[in-house]
Amino acid sequence: MCAADLNIKKILSLHEKNDREEAGLFLIEGRREIDLAVKNGVNIVQILDSSNTSAKNLARISYRGEIVAVAEIPRRDSKNLVLPPDPLVVVLDRLEKPGNIGAILRTAEAAGVNAVLVCGGGGDLCNPNLIRASLGAVFSIPVFCLTDVEAINWLDSRKIPIIVASPYAQKTYFTHDFKRSSAVIIGSEADGVSEIWSKKAAASVAIPMRGAVDSLNASVSAATLIYEALRQRHENP
């Protein structure tokens, strides 16, 4: 599509989830994020930058005023994912803030997590804030939006034990053995891990809190547990 044919109104509508789903398209802002998307098979439909779009319109499309790609929403199929022995999986249980989900994806990708399952309604992987917060990691790590039941069945079929992060657990996270197959469940900051996951847990672990504050941001909790697993696996390859 040439610059003269650009429908700015249509492109602007892709900031909204319903419009993205209806069009089957979404926006990717930033050269690094676009490069990662292309490397991982995302089909780019159109590129908008200063060479073909006015500065005013580009600023309306991109919060950062950068190069923007219009891309097809990729299909993600968890059924055919091949996991290595003793995989590390992260499950996000009812996390609502796209920025938190994106930050966790960035950490998970950096640490070599094998898959991330997003459950409980937070599953808009094409949200611009999520993509920005992930620095494009959403395109390079296996991540899937599943219902709770689908995710539990997925883990059960692969014999991956469920490890729940809970402030009420008797065992601290650094005493747990993360070297074996593990699915770490991160709950929302407001409500914690939901009952369906707590009932399926093989173990619960707590992050010690020594000050007046009694909880951490979900992305910080996830990073703490992910890198403890990485530390253990690095020391005992």
UniProtKB/TrEMBL annotation:
Pfam families: MRM3-like_sub_bind, SpoU_methylase. Keywords: Methyltransferase, Transferase. GO terms for biological process: methylation; RNA processing. Gene3D superfamilies: 3.30.1330.30, 3.40.1280.10. Residues 88-227 form the tRNA/rRNA methyltransferase SpoU type domain. GO terms for molecular function: RNA binding; RNA methyltransferase activity. Residues 7-71 form the MRM3-like substrate binding domain. The keyword Transferase applies. Signal peptide: none annotated. Belongs to the class IV-like SAM-binding methyltransferase superfamily. RNA methyltransferase TrmH family. This is tRNA G18 (Ribose-2'-O)-methylase SpoU. It comes from Candidatus Termititenax persephonae.
